[in-house]
């Protein structure tokens, strides 16, 4: 019986980092505002395929978010409360949810990797649902990487916030 080869997909990292966790995947957008309970991390949208599942310590793969910029706040709360996913994989660029990750990292030093895959690769990882997958920078794999990841202990963003951006965001951030 032959062992299958490791699959490594390459995407665009919007917040780079490394994570290994069980993949929680769906081919339907998710509204974080009203669709995820920020106090428990449970998907509470009863019409979503992930309904009743918890985001904590997973790698979440969805095509993108659904709804308004309120999703940024919910994602930030999930990360700050230790209830969010270790990483997020999207099929397309997702500004609102990624903003919540960036604010949590910039202001509170807590983060999650964010990677966008092309539609073909995103479709492939939907078949990995429930399996442990691995993210390192822009790479997504179905098996552990053979070389160590040197990120100097901290995730690096593809989008940066300057001092002015931080001052604009501070009044809206509540602990």
From TrEMBL:
<protein>
    <recommendedName>
        <fullName>Phosphomevalonate dehydratase small subunit-like domain-containing protein</fullName>
    </recommendedName>
</protein>
<dbReference type="Pfam" id="PF01989">
    <property type="entry name" value="AcnX_swivel_put"/>
</dbReference>
<keyword id="KW-0456">Lyase</keyword>
<dbReference type="GO" id="GO:0016829">
    <property type="term" value="F:lyase activity"/>
</dbReference>
<feature type="domain" description="Phosphomevalonate dehydratase small subunit-like">
    <location>
        <begin position="30"/>
        <end position="105"/>
    </location>
</feature>
<dbReference type="InterPro" id="IPR002840">
    <property type="entry name" value="PMDh-S-like_dom"/>
</dbReference>
